[in-house]
């Protein structure tokens, strides 16, 4: 066993995957699903085996309220899924690769794709609280990268079409079948944990982003590094700083996320039912 520069123990993902298979069965999940702030209850929709992150050494503490730190492996609409009820954010630890081990485990379990969800602020006039946005692309506004320190040439990950066109089409078809509007847009990753200033929001909007949040982008990069197909959907919980009179807060994020969560669940169920 050797340690890479980030301190991850090589072989650990395989060990954890073996532990998970012992508990949940050997059948590989097709999809991983990561649930964002206020969206953790979706894990309860899965009939399967729930494993607390505390039972999986090296998994994040998921110390952010509104998350549900459990891995649930089981069936959702006839498709085997691995649902991560909480994620680690860069701002909790200062580690850009905080989700590397869970995603390595997902890969080791045999999944081929990852669907990410998050709560986000909107800079787009047509995206209001309660709306959903499918990420067509992203802007890494944090200056960080989860692959910093990765010693192999695999670190030079191409990011053209990082957000998988096939998965995006299937998610759009699922939304259309449910008659739920699902606009595509660009998501900017801001490090957090403080929210953005209005000037930062004007800057990010000028750069071409439609929504802003504190997660997801490092997971997209890690997923592509690991060879997982990936797509992501934002639940808009607020207009971004300076764009409305509403006060922005984590409480507000958690209170507003359920508005979009019900629609998100219908889209994901439809998507998985036809996957
Ligand atoms: N900014 C960053 N992250 C967020 C926001 C926001 O306005 N809303 C929900 N998550």
Protein model, in words:
There is one protein chain. The protein has one domain: Nucleoside phosphorylase domain (Rossmann fold), CATH 3.40.50.1580. Helices cover 31% and strands 23% of the residues. It is built from 7 helices and 9 strands. It has helices spanning 12-24, 90-93, 100-109, 165-177, 198-207, 217-226, 250-273, and strands at 31-34, 47-52, 70-76, 79-84, 113-122, 132-140, 183-189, 211-213, 229-239. The chain is globular and about 50 Å long. The structure holds hypoxanthine. Hypoxanthine binds at residues 119-121, 190, 195-196, 212-214, 237-238, 240, 248, 253.
How does the SSE layout of this entry go?
Elements: H1 12-24, E1 31-34, E2 47-52, E3 70-76, E4 79-84, H2 90-93, H3 100-109, E5 113-122, E6 132-140, H4 165-177, E7 183-189, H5 198-207, E8 211-213, H6 217-226, E9 229-239, H7 250-273
The chain binds hypoxanthine (HPA).
Residues 119-121, 190, 195-196, 212-214, 237-238, 240, 248, 253 line the site of hypoxanthine.
Short description:
Helices cover 31% and strands 23% of the residues. It has 275 residues and is α/β, with parallel strands linked by helices.
